[in-house]
Amino acid sequence: MLHWKKVAMSTSLGAMLFTLTACGGESSTAPNTADPAQKAETVRVTEVIRSIFYAPQYVAIEKGYFRDEGLDVKLDTAWGGDKAATRVLAGQDEVALVGAETTIFVQQQGSPDALVSFAQCTQRDGSFLVARQNVTNFDWSMLKGKSLLGSRAGSMPEMVSEYVQKQHGIKPLTDNEIIQNIAFDNQAAAFASGTGDFFQAFEPAASLLEKQGQGRVVASFGQDGGKLPYTVFMAKDSYLKSHPQTAQKFTNAVQKAQTYLHTASPEEAATVIKPYFTDVDQDILVNVIKRYQQSDSWPTDTLIDQQEFDNMKKIMKDAGQLQQDVPYEKVVQPSFAEKAKQN
Description:
Elements: H1 5-10, E1 41-47, H2 55-62, H3 65-68, E2 71-77, H4 81-89, E3 95-98, H5 101-108, E4 115-122, E5 127-131, E6 147-149, H6 156-167, E7 177-179, H7 184-192, E8 198-202, H8 205-211, E9 216-220, H9 221-225, E10 231-236, H10 237-242, H11 244-261, H12 266-273, H13 282-294, H14 306-318, H15 328-331, H16 335-342
Parallel strand pairs: 1-2, 1-3, 6-7, 6-8
Antiparallel strand pairs: 3-10, 4-10, 5-8, 5-9
C-alpha cells in the first residue's frame, strides 16, 4: 500500500477555509445536445475539496460544456488529496482534481501506473496575506519581527509562503514567527480574536474578514509566488492511453470554461456556480470571483507548460519536499490541452 502522508500534507490544506458543503449541480446528466440520440459517456471525477477556487470545473458542468462534448460528469468530493489520489489509483474514479505535486509524490512512491496531469484548472496559489488594518505601500519585509498565522509545514500553501518570503529577503521562522498549531477550520476565528499579526487566508475567509472589518487583504501569495500548476485534472497513465478521445473531450470542456471566466463578469460567473455554494452570500461570492480574476488565478488555457512545472519543483525543492527529480514528461501529458487550445 502506498504511503500518502506527504501527499496529504502537500495538497492545498488551506482549502478547508474556502470550502463549503457540496450542494447540487453534481452531474452534467443532460443528453449530448450535438446528438440527442447518443448516450453520454460517464466520467467520474473526484475533487480534493469543494472550493470557489475551482470555478472552471463548476462552470464546465453548469454551462453544459461537458454535456456538449458528449460526457456525463459525475462529481464527488474526496475531502483530502490522499483520498482523491487513492480513488483514481483504485479505479473508483477516472479523474481527480488535485494539486499537481500529487503526481510527483505518487511517482516517488514507485506506482506502477503513474498519475498524469493533463489539464490545468488553476495556475497560482490561491491564498492571500491579510493584515489587521489596511497597509499602504505594503512590502513583504513588513513580516520581519511579526507573527504570521500560516499553513501546516510541508503543505503547498506553506511552501509557497516560505518561498515568497525568501525571495524578499526574509528567513521564515527566523526573522518571524509562523503559527502552525491551529486547525484550518479555526484559523479565521483565531485571527479575528487577535492571534497573529498577519494571516495567510484562503477564500472566502479573506473576504469575510474584510466584510466584518477584522482584516484587510494586502498581498497575494499567488501573484508573488509565480505561475505553477497549482490544481490540475489528472488520471492514470493507462486511462489516458486507453481513452484518448474521452480525455480530449474533457479538456475541450475545461478550455471553454477557462475562456468563459476570462470574459464573464464576476456577477454573471457567481450566478453560474451558485448551486455549488448555496450557503455563501452572493456579494461574497462575487467578491471572491473578482479577486481570483484580478490575481490571475485561472489560466486562459488548460496547458501545463514546462516553465510552470519547473517553478513548482523549484518551490518544492526549496522546501525540502522534492526527494528526487521527476521529469515533466513522466507526469504531464500536454497534447490534449494543446489541441483544445488550438480549437
